[in-house]
């Protein structure tokens, strides 16, 4: 039995469909003009409605225009009334966490920012990325090059730049905030930009780096998170339908022990070192006196720099890269696949690191049908439009819609009666 969930939209129940159809039929009898059309898909029944022109109708009949718009609102709020193509059903989210504060660990900050820049280059917007940095290395007094962060001693590219958005900084990076972020149990005052807005269709890439040991990772040198804490948080996310698949990557000493306690489905995990092994830095910068990036992170991101948004590179190819070679790493990087439903050779790197383009599949026959109906409504209002494409009617249709709105509000008494009927119908579903 597969653990993956279906992302198709659930159709409305039969009794709900019957009531919706009755409302439409009654409104149609009251106003012979206008249009009501059903578009049947595999996922749901979508009803497209537009207002009759109302010119010359009695006030109560004009009120049907308002009822149409109220009904559109009712359909939008009702489960099953939403139609999404499979091409736009998945979203990718990224959570990058650097957990240790002192300037001595500046290489962890550099690795986090480099990963942040990589996923942005591959199409994931800042709105889908949560960046947590325990220390602001760029503004640290020990940084000889203020307001900059570099990943090598040549300092050819400033990683900090002008387009970085840090969501949690300094002492905001705590175990509590991290767990609340994963499980969605944040305070109501927390803005949307600092929340992990995911659902059962979301693929999440979680990257963690810092100073750790066997089954723990330090936060700010005064608290730590255990492998059990993360495992239980992921299980809560699965139970609350907050993810579809997770790719968990951690770069710290004895990193592989941090995913050893995972038990939730659809999680692919990888780490930089086995139990008893250290995770090493890659290069030092003599001018600032510390290492500037971790070895494992550097090798993984070097591989990702060679792909683009349309790349067909898979997780299996990443495993065969230098990042998983002891001669380059000086430790044994690991990967855990037993919880993951798919074979790594079938998982594209862009399934987690790349942005998902939102697309909509339009049925040509539906578009032509809508075109002819809109054209007929426009002629009734004295506006002539050529039925070549639905999009060509935008400007004219706005005029028709505004006119219908103004005339419809003259029958507000009748619309209130229909509104009450809609509310009663909505409450009957709950």
UniProtKB/TrEMBL annotation:
Gene Ontology molecular-function annotations: GPI-anchor transamidase activity
Pathway: Glycolipid biosynthesis; glycosylphosphatidylinositol-anchor biosynthesis
Listed GO biological process terms: attachment of GPI anchor to protein; GPI anchor biosynthetic process; proteolysis
GO cellular component, one term: GPI-anchor transamidase complex
Transmembrane annotation, as ranges: 409-429
Cleavable signal peptide: 1-31
Stated name of the protein: Probable GPI8-GPI-anchor transamidase
